[in-house]
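stuck on this chain:
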Amino acid sequence: MKTFQFLLHVSGIAIEFGDGDDSKAIGFYTARRAKGATPELAFKALRSALEADPKVSEIMDSARASGLTPRLEVDEVHPVPWWRALLPWRDPGLAFYPADDDELG
């Protein structure tokens, strides 16, 4: 079984930054690893793991409850060499981004 590393992009959310103004995060990026015979099978396993991740599921559930439609996209996928897959993997974080002023109209 091979290990793959994914760069995931989630959009279609709205989370307050909590920095005193009204700006909101409208998406985030996160890197994750998953095992599978192919990238497609690894992504299926990864999708299940994301649904079980309390941080991610809370964000997605909150967006849906607000009438938004969160979208999950794979920006990049790379095979991880067997020797690197043996090394410990850090707890993946979430890199949020705000709406661009141009997008607000």
Summary: The mean pLDDT is 90. The first helix runs from residue 39 to 52.
